[in-house]
Amino acid sequence: MKKFEEVKSLVAALEADADKFYNKGNSAAGTRIRKGMQDLKNLAQAIRLEVQETKNKA
């Protein structure tokens, strides 16, 4: 459950950069969004593997 909380906090942290990129045209914020989304993808993959492993043990 800890990793799921990390996902939620990461998405919340990216919200300000998303506003800067989409509404204010700040291209540096776009770079931060792309990095954050890559981190989010990696975290999601780790959660998927953890869930699969737990399911297979049961």
TrEMBL record:
One family from Pfam that matches here is: Hc1
> What are the protein's GO molecular function terms?
DNA binding; structural constituent of chromatin
> Secretion signal: which residues?
none
Entry function: Might have a role analogous to that of eukaryotic histone proteins.
Family indicated by similarity: Belongs to the histone H1/H5 family. HCT subfamily.
Query: Which protein is depicted?
Result: Histone H1
Identify the species of origin: Pedobacter ginsenosidimutans
